[in-house]
Every structure is written in C-alpha cells, then in structure tokens.
C-alpha cells in the first residue's frame, strides 16, 4: 500500500513529525553511475522555504543513501535512504489533537485506523513526497542513459493559465522563477497572485503540465498496465491532486474524430521496431493530439499530460469545525504552510513520471525473447 | 499486466476476433448469492446493437460462468467465465492487415510485440471490456449486501453538457434513453448529435459522470493505494479514456481554499468509527467539494468523479495513413463501429468503480485487528 | 491467490466437478511458435486412466486455447484456455456432502469459507493441476528456444528409492514405464508395489526428482526472489507435496563445509557474464553439491531438486470420521482414485519448474540496462 | 524482489559493510502496542558474538524505529527502521575483491549484475537477516494479541539429531543453552561438535524445527497461497537453507495412506467456524501427521515444520578457487565467521514464520463478508 511500481519500485515510510522520512528503491538496474549531488539537487527543488511564496518551514533535507551503491555505481541491491526531520514544531499542533481540520485527512485517518498522529498531518503530510523525489532522481539517472528526459512546469495558478500546447514554451526557462513557469510574464502574474493569497491567509490551486521526451515506442501494457493509466495513478497519488488528463484530455471530449485523429505520414528513415531504444521509423505523425500514447502504449512521440491540484486545505484564518466528541469549534491554525502547492509539486510530478516511465521500460523488455 | 485489483482481482483474456473473451475473478467473498440474470443484464447494457446510435455489430454476448459458484452461491474459489465471439466479420479487416489506422493501437502494438492480430483491433478492441462488466456485476452483487450503489451516466457529448452537480439529476431516469443521460431534454439533443455525426461517417467524444453512494469511511490506503488514484487508474484503463477528475477536479484548480474546503458540522448521532459498514457519525459536512475522498481515503460522503472519452478513432470516411513498408495509403475502413462510445461506456465505468470500491473495502478490513 | 508468477503468470480456475477447468497465462513473450500438439501431449501425460496404476477416471482432457495466439504464434496477449469436465460422477460424492474426509481439505475449506463444493474435492482436487500443465507447456515452448530443458522423474515410491545422484540415470528412459522412473528395474518394483497397495484399497507416497539443464547463470533475485525459494513455493503448491530440497538438501545438513563446498576450477573459454543466454565462462565447478543455485541465483550448472509427496488421502477402505454435526461416522468412499500420485505428478513438477524458470529469466532481463 | 508478503509486508535493504541495514514494514494493523524492548530482545537473539560457538564479530545492533509508531502504538503507517553497521572490517575482504569464494554468492552476483560489493558478502550476507528479525518481532506483537505463539529450536547439528516429534520436548528450555536446543544432553553434544569444527577451521550444517501454536483454522489460500508453500518460500529464503518439510515430510513419503491419515473424532464443544480467532470445534484429530495444514489451509492444530541448513561456506582453511581472469588461486579467508549457522538461524526462522502467519491471517479476513 506504500509501494509504487512493479519492477522499479519505491516503498516509502515516514511522517511529518517523526524521526525521519525515507524509503527503499528496489529494481534499480546495476551499473548506473549514482550522482548524489544530482539527487540532492532534485530534493532541493522540493525543499520548503525556497522563496517568499512557499512555506517558512526550513529544513536542510539532506538525503543519506544507506545501501545499494558501491564505488559510485548501483549494484542492483535495493537503495535504502532517509532524510532526518530536523525542524518540527510539534507543539504548533497541540491545539488540533482532538480536532478534524476541514478537507484534510484528519477525519478519514481517524475513521480508518482509530488512531492518528495529528502532528503536522502525520503520514498524510506533503512532506512525505520527498521520498518520491529521491526515487525519481534515481530513475532520472537511469533514463538519462537512454536520452529520455522529463520536464514539468506550472501551467496554471488560480485563473492565470498558459496555452495548453507545451511546444509553445521554452522549457529551459522553468527554473528561472519561483513559480516554475516557462512564460516569464505569466510567472510574474502567478507569483503576485500567490503572494496576495498568502497575505489573506488563503490558498490557491493550479495545474502542472509534464512532458516526456525521447521515450521509445512500445512502453505500457494492455488492460491494467496502460501507460497513461499508470501515469494517472502516479500523479493522482500526489497530495492535493484532483485530476489527470493526457493528450487533448477533457477538452478533446468535445471534438470529432476527424479533428482529433493523428494522421501517419511516410518518413525517410528505415523501419525499426525495437522497444528498447528511442527509434527511428519509416513513419511520422502529422499531429500529436494523442499525447504520445495510443491504446495505452507509447508511440515514440512526446508524452504530455496535465495534473490539477486543489488549493491547500490549511488556511491561516479562522475556520469552523468539529472535535472528536462532536462539539463545534472555531479553529485557528498556526504552523508554516504553502499558500500554493504548485511550485513545489513540479519536481514531485517529474519524479513520479520518471519512476513510471522507467518501470514501464523495464517491463517492456520482457515482451519478446 | 492483464490483472486488475489486489484482493478482488480480475484477469482478462481475449481479442475481438478470437474464439472467446473472458476472464477470472479471484477473491470473491464466499457465500454471496450469485444472480446470473443480473450479470447477463449488466452485459446487455454494454452489448452492441442496442440502438440506432451504437454499432451494428450484433452479438448475443451470453456469459457462461465456469467455476466458483455452487448451488447459487460463491464458494470463495475463482470464477472463470467466457463469452464466445459469434459474429466476427474478420474479412472486413483484410485490407488493414498491413496498415496502421490513425489513433488506433495498431502501430504501438506492432512496435511493442513485432506481431499483431489486426482483426477488429485484436486485444486493443473495446470488445474486451465485456470481461470487466461481468466482473463488475459480481462486485456489485457483493456491494449490494452492504447497501453500496454505483451509478454512472453520460454527462457530456460533444459540446452538449450537463451541470457538474450530480445531485441535480434524478438518476433513476438514466436507462430511459439510449444515451444514458438523466436529463431527458439534453438526452434528446445528444442523441440527435450522435445520429448526425454517424451519418457524416465521423465520431464524437464526451464525458461520463459516476456516483458511489453508501460507501463507508475508511476505504483507500496511503501513498500508492489512495482511493481516487485507484479509481483514476481503473477509469483511465477503459478504451478511449483521456482524463479523470474527482470532486471539483480541474475546475477547482482555479478556486481558493476558503471556497473549496468542506466545513465539518456537528451531527446528532453517536460516534462510530468502524471502517466496515456505512457509518453514522457525530459530524457531517456542509459541502462535498472533496468528492467523498480526503487524503486518499473515503469520508462517508458520496464519491463522484468524471471520465473524459475521446471520439472513437475509426471513421467511416477516407483517411490518409502509412503501411508497414512506409508507403502512403488512403484507407477506407469498413466494419461496424460506434459513432460515440459514451452510452456503452457507462456500464464499463460502473463496473470498474464497483471492482475498485470492493477491493478497497476488503483491504480496509485488515487495517485493525 | 490463484495466480502464480510475477511476469510470466498463470491464473487458474475450476473445480473437479464444475463445468470446466482452465486458466489465463499472461506475460507470454510474443512471437513464440505455439505447438498445440505439444501442449496436448503434455496434458496427456497428466491424464487419468493412463495405466493400471492410475485412477480409472477417464477424460479426454482436450485443451482449447481461446486467445493470445495468431497464425500459430503468441501475440503477447494473454492466453486463455479451458478443458471441459466431461466424466464427473458427482453422485459418487453424495454420501460425503456432510462428512469431513480424513486428511483432505474438506474441513479446512469449510472452516475457511463456511461453504464447500463437496463433489470430488471441489477446488482442492488434483484435477485442477491440469491448468498448470498447460501453462507449463507454454513455458517449455519458450525455454526450448533458449535450449533450456526440464525433466522430472519418480525417484522413490514407498521405501523403494533411486540413488540421489541424478547423473547416474538415462533420463530418456523415463517415459518408457508407467511409473516414470529412469531405472527399469526399480520401475518394475515400484509398479508392483503400487499395484499391491491399490488392491489393498490403500495408497502410498514417494518422491519426484527434477533436473533443469541449460539454465544460464544469473536467474533469481535477492531476498524474496531467490530461485530455490521460488521453486520450493511452486513445488509445495502441488497437491500432496510435503517437502522440498535442492542440492544436497536435508542429507547435506549433516556434512561439513569442507565436504559440501563446490570448488571453482579454471576453464578454457573466454569470460562471459551475460545473464540472458547460456554462458561459456572461464571457470567451472569440480562438484555441484549446491544444485546449480548459490545465494539464490543460478550459477549455470544443472539445477536439481526433490519433492516429497504424501500418500493420497482417499482410501478405498472403511475409515472413521465425523460429520458437520459432530457425530462419528464410518465412511466408505467410492469414486475413482489414484493409489499413488507420483507418476502423474511428474509432468506437474516439470510444468511448475518451467514456469518458475521462465519467470526468473524474464525478471533477470531487467537487472542491467 | 526484496519484499516479503502481500498485506503484511517487509521490504529490506542493506549490505554487510554498507552504512546500515534496515527495512520498511507495511500493513502493520493500527493500535497495536509496540514494545521496543521486545524488538531489541529478539534482535539480540540473532546478534553475533553471543557465545564461543558464534562469530566473533561484535555489534550492538541497536534498532531505531523511524516511523509508524505514535505514543507507543502502531498507527497503520509503514514502520521504517534501521540498524547502523558499526564494526565492519572491510579491509579483511580486500584479498577477495577479484576472487570467487566457493559456494558463496560471489560468482552468481557478479554474473547477474556485472558488479559486486565484495565486502563481507555484500547483499548476500547473513547480516541482512536482522531486518527480518525486526519485522518478525512486530508480527509477533500482533500475533500475541491473538494468543498465537511461534517457537523454533535447533533439532540437528551434523549427525546429532533430536526425535522428529516436537511434543517430546519442553520448549521453555530452548534459550537455556547457546545452541538453542530443548534437549540439554543433546545441546551439550552439539555445542562440543560445533566447537571442534570451529577449531578445525571447518563448518557444519543442521536442521531447525519450528512450531506454531494457537493458529486458527482457515489460514492459507488455494493454489498460490497455500500456507505451507508460503512458509516454505519464507524459510528457503533464509541464507544457507537447503530444504523444507512440514508434517511427516520426506519421511512420510514412504508411508501408506492408512498410516498417515489423521482421523477425526467427535469433541464436546459446540461448532464454530470463524476464521479469525482460535476455535473450539465439535471435532478433534486423533493424530497430527498433517502438521496442522490440510489442502494448504490451517486446521487449528499445531503447525510444525523443519528447515535444513547447509554448513557455512566460509572456511578458515586454505581453499582452491579462481579469480575473475580465470586464474587458479589458493585462498585464505580472514574475517569473523560462524562455524554453524543454526543457533542464530533460530530467531530468523521464527521471524519468517511470524510474518507469514500474520499475512495469511490478514488475508483470511477477506474470505467472507
């Protein structure tokens, strides 16, 4: 229940205010150079306290790899890792010990388990996504060997949104602003909106777009292993995610087939059908409305998809709620919280995509002798 | 790769033009009355040739249960079942043996496996969803014992759409029109649009909404077992699905937290936290923007979600494409096809939801001693 | 719970007296020639009524493949199959409807499920192993492409036993006698013992030895995927199996390390470490006490192991037992039963070994990029 | 590949000479008191350096629980844990960097992964079993709530063996001698044999017997989930294990059915068929040759089984071998090693049994509504 993937797997553990957050990556192919600086860099992209529009919680979030790497390379053994929690203010949460915060997991965890670690959201905290970023960084190190790249960005905050077509943007600009948006003008607007919302003690939602380049054809399996369904499950597992679409998605539901079909055209290269390496082929597509996946299997085009995030449930304003005994309470949350999850969700989206693509790629190796 | 679920599982087999389509349901609790007429009835809802707006392929689609039922009750043993394919026109597909139809799975299957059963879409045909409907009917028979009901309907065809709020509709009306839409006026409009699109040899997409009532709190697991992620994966695995959202979904990404949070109010009943039965509780929610799931775990409210479907890729008009040798070809598809997948997708959405909810319910039984 | 394997999987269904017994094989690599005559031949080796020392139940046991094969080759899609039950004498079992037969699964199934299909042992019947033989035959067809062979034989019946060292026997002689024993003299003794036991209405146990030749080094995974543990689980899942050992097994527990260690010697060939094909290497082993597996991973030597089977529980003599109400009953079983499971267990052992080796082989392909 | 179990799972990581060894336990039921002193106590039973007949490697092996426990109780969240490696003498292994030690995993790991952590056996070291002992202790804490107990002991060292019938021994005496043998006289003999073997630089094998008391009827699933097959897989996954048998095992293969069948007798208590709690019943067994499991499902009697261990492969004497380049080498191992794995294997056997029984128990809860 806390394990992602089938061959490349991540099992996570940890709570917001426990001793540490971490996990075990199993199925890492052997012989891959493990660049620990890169892993830490990815983690730093998710770290709290990066800018004025993220939470004030400041933790170094230093990852320690405990196993599976020998003389700089993966050995094929599982990679255990952890990040110590160092800056918990557990007392900030004493007031909510017996309360259910609105639209949090407080009530559902209590219903499910009959017990709940109320400190900082416990197991349901977004803090636990850092394990995913570590595993995603490892997956990226493998994919890099195959020239597969994964890039996500903030494409909507509140009602400020980019064009759906990701090809219109220069993705190298994403990290140049705190919102992680490739359109500098929109980025400024988004940042201003988040700052304003924060000042009001409120929060705001948005959308992350993700693009996978260099993915070979043949990834994804029929029925329960369709590539977009695996990506969807991975994305929807991220805290605060409320929706997933790929290709033309919900908008394309209003189209006709004659508009949405991607026509094949002849191409010059010679045919190549291996499912292991990015392919040249004797055909190409006129359009990519399908989003790089047809019948649940990658077709060699760019894969792109979008993930909707709701506004963060923790508001720095008075809210009505009920305590365990059923009495009404007015709640004033303290603690340090993000007014908008989007900028820090970007590396998590990338991480989940990297793990999913790598897992599908490994499985596809067994499709033929 | 062809198995859904963890404890209540369905493994499917079959191709559009093979001998039979079927599957194995494992994990069916013992002692459940198995109403075979109900199973056949569910299958009839998915059957081709129901009305003028579905495909002309006519098959009786009689399901045979081969095991796991004794004297009318489930025994706990796996339930094998099959439906013979009886009305294949495989010759209709001879022309496309060496072609890749646009936006179908032809090219991706060929890339993946180096071989492809071209007849009627083979393994990628929507025909194979009938196995899911059989398994979903079995799941419904279990959920019925717990007063959990699942109802889906067509909420959008092309640009004709219903209000997002499913509470506005009388769900008992859904089966009274061929579109399976609870708004009789909109249903007529949708039917007319589909008929027109069919006449043009074109196809059209849409959206299915699904509502789960009576689901107890406590279903869904942290991290990889979040209930909405499992539902999302299940829905996205349905042929032609392009997007999934629950609660306020993509629209809610533009909202503020103060708008989207669901406030708890005191309720009169005494506290009850069992995760096994629909619960009374000492609190209730003012709104249900969350869609019945918070932190990935059900909260006892109605669960609702939406699934986007693209227009069917098979057009009854000339299309450009490329053959295996890389030569351009003008293709004229024959065969019998749906101009709009929505009406027949409704029972498949329900089936996948029933399986997912039952599986989560069984797992939740192990959360405490 | 009814699925074997991780990548090459078999999900089975069926009861002794239900409509059919069958299963779904998923993960069959694409492009493999599927020799249906070979599959039927393997099934015939397991068929009842082959000789005077097996059960008198006579069924043709014709297998029908329902999917996953196109123009004689596997397509990568799941292979559904079934064998109709045609010669049930369910009335033979009316007397035991309310009884628990000693050392059968009657009482445990009833305890577990609260319901039981009493006819012919229901789900617990050895008849359901035929699904395994079909899947094993498919696995053998894949392994044949890689020159990996699997051969089992009866090495003990009662107290008549062969030498432990399988290299002493000509394995091509196994099918020349009804006991499936490579030593013609011992085979005769075993056959006489079984015939005598049958006449007394009693039954007798024994041991099957299995040898895998041509298996490359590198199969099996650390911890939960050790090759011998996977083989052990597969063998112990066969009806009436009571023990498993590989290499020197239980006997070797009395040895010293200096006796049991397998010494490496230089060999002439050049080094080769690929885990995908049978390897030449620059070393060889002086002995093979390890049984071809070291640290849970194959080392390229012959893999050999032994499986103990208890005597069949169904006796054709009066036995004391108790009915559901707790009353003592003297039971006289009718029906047609094997006096010794060994001869017909041989193809089942081979089938489970073939599936296990193929599954491990597919997984090992993902150990490196 | 490094994960055990289906609902109660353990994922392990770590190498002999890495930073730490640990794991993640997922599926721990919520609300269980977590007695950390008991967990440490179990780990101390496995610790090196306990007596003159175990390895001289001395490590405190202090376990740190990192998550999943709040105010002394399990929360239902995964329990991450680790034990730091503190006393590695990695230099002891420099000589074997390019050698393959006989009957170790050196060659097979190298064949599989193309890279190998040679220090202390790396991932293949018996040191990594400590993760299992921690997880097993957690499982025992759950089983204790249900009055299920698990006890293992050394029943054979070399050719010194106990009677097969575990009922003949007073199991409370096991911990009173360093061999963990309930027969004080045999324990002395075994200890002397191990000491002698150690002095010779040699090693010796043996057998562990394990008994599960209080296990309710109904645990274990048909086909791939048979309880004895799960126990077998768990036991065979322990380092140096070579065989597994339950009930009368290999010896019983020579018996007749009329000897081995367990006859049911009437009992006084009223019928009870729940699969969740130890049961009273209206029947009892005259004998328990079956070993508490019939048809793969527990019957409420004591479960007992035996595990064969080969002699440790590391000898403190000169051995011939080959290096990576294929040259013959005479190898003299230094390092600190057990002359006999048995005494320290006892707690590992118990741990694997506890995990397996608990997992089966959780699954059995979903057999009926």
UniProtKB/TrEMBL annotation, chains A, B, C, D:
<keyword id="KW-0028">Amino-acid biosynthesis</keyword>
<keyword id="KW-0521">NADP</keyword>
<keyword id="KW-0057">Aromatic amino acid biosynthesis</keyword>
<dbReference type="InterPro" id="IPR035904">
    <property type="entry name" value="Chorismate_synth_AroC_sf"/>
</dbReference>
<dbReference type="GO" id="GO:0005829">
    <property type="term" value="C:cytosol"/>
</dbReference>
<keyword id="KW-0274">FAD</keyword>
<dbReference type="GO" id="GO:0009073">
    <property type="term" value="P:aromatic amino acid family biosynthetic process"/>
</dbReference>
<feature type="binding site">
    <location>
        <position position="295"/>
    </location>
    <ligand>
        <name>FMN</name>
    </ligand>
</feature>
<comment type="similarity">
    <text>Belongs to the chorismate synthase family.</text>
</comment>
<comment type="function">
    <text>This reaction introduces a second double bond into the aromatic ring system.</text>
</comment>
<protein>
    <recommendedName>
        <fullName>Chorismate synthase</fullName>
        <ecNumber>4.2.3.5</ecNumber>
    </recommendedName>
</protein>
<dbReference type="GO" id="GO:0004107">
    <property type="term" value="F:chorismate synthase activity"/>
</dbReference>
<dbReference type="Pfam" id="PF01264">
    <property type="entry name" value="Chorismate_synt"/>
</dbReference>
<feature type="binding site">
    <location>
        <position position="52"/>
    </location>
    <ligand>
        <name>NADP(+)</name>
    </ligand>
</feature>
<keyword id="KW-0288">FMN</keyword>
<keyword id="KW-0456">Lyase</keyword>
<keyword id="KW-0285">Flavoprotein</keyword>
<feature type="binding site">
    <location>
        <begin position="310"/>
        <end position="314"/>
    </location>
    <ligand>
        <name>FMN</name>
    </ligand>
</feature>
<feature type="binding site">
    <location>
        <position position="336"/>
    </location>
    <ligand>
        <name>FMN</name>
    </ligand>
</feature>
<feature type="binding site">
    <location>
        <begin position="239"/>
        <end position="240"/>
    </location>
    <ligand>
        <name>FMN</name>
    </ligand>
</feature>
<dbReference type="InterPro" id="IPR000453">
    <property type="entry name" value="Chorismate_synth"/>
</dbReference>
<dbReference type="GO" id="GO:0009423">
    <property type="term" value="P:chorismate biosynthetic process"/>
</dbReference>
<comment type="pathway">
    <text>Metabolic intermediate biosynthesis; chorismate biosynthesis; chorismate from D-erythrose 4-phosphate and phosphoenolpyruvate: step 7/7.</text>
</comment>
<comment type="subunit">
    <text>Homotetramer.</text>
</comment>
<dbReference type="GO" id="GO:0010181">
    <property type="term" value="F:FMN binding"/>
</dbReference>
<feature type="binding site">
    <location>
        <begin position="123"/>
        <end position="125"/>
    </location>
    <ligand>
        <name>FMN</name>
    </ligand>
</feature>
<feature type="binding site">
    <location>
        <position position="46"/>
    </location>
    <ligand>
        <name>NADP(+)</name>
    </ligand>
</feature>
<dbReference type="InterPro" id="IPR020541">
    <property type="entry name" value="Chorismate_synthase_CS"/>
</dbReference>
<dbReference type="GO" id="GO:0008652">
    <property type="term" value="P:amino acid biosynthetic process"/>
</dbReference>
């Amino acid at each position: 229940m806390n394990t992602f993937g089938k061959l490349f797997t991540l099992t996570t553990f940890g709570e917001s205010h426990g001793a540490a957050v971490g996990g075990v990556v199993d199925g890492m192919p052997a012989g891959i150079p493990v660049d620990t600086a890169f892993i830490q860099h990815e983690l730093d992209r998710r770290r709290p306290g990066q800018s004025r529009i993220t939470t004030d919680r400041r933790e170094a979030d230093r990852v320690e790899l405990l196993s599976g790497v020998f003389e700089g390379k993966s050995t094929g053994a599982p990679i255990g890792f952890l990040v110590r929690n160092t800056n918990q203010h557990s007392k900030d949460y004493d007031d909510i010990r017996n309360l259910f915060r609105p639209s949090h997991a407080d009530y559902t965890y209590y219903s499910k388990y009959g017990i709940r670690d109320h400190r900082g959201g416990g197991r349901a905290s977004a803090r636990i996504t850092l394990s995913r970023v570590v595993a995603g960084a490892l997956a990226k190190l493998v994919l890099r060997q195959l020239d597969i790249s994964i890039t996500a960005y903030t494409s909507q905050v509140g009602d400020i949104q980019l064009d759906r077509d990701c090809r219109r943007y220069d993705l190298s600009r994403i990290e140049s602003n705190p919102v992680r948006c490739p359109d500098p003008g929109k980025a400024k607007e988004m940042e201003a909106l988040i700052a304003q919302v924060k000042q009001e003690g409120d929060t705001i939602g948005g959308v992350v777009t993700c693009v996978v380049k260099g993915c070979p054809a043949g990834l994804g399996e029929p029925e329960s292993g369709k590539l977009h369904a695996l990506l969807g499950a991975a994305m929807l597992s991220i805290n605060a995610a409320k929706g997933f679409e790929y290709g033309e998605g919900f908008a394309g539901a209003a189209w006709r087939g004659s508009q949405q079909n991607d026509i094949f055209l002849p191409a010059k290269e010679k045919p190549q059908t291996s499912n292991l390496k990015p392919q040249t082929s004797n055909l190409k597509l006129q359009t990519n409305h399908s989003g790089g996946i047809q019948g649940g299997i990658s077709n060699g085009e760019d894969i792109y998809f979008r993930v909707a995030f709701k506004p963060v449930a923790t508001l720095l304003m008075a809210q009505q709620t009920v305590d365990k005994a059923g009495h009404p309470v007015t709640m004033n949350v303290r603690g340090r919280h993000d007014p908008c999850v989007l900028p820090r969700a970007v590396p998590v989206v990338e991480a989940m995509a990297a793990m999913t693509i790598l897992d599908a790629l490994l499985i596809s190796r067994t499709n033929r002798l």
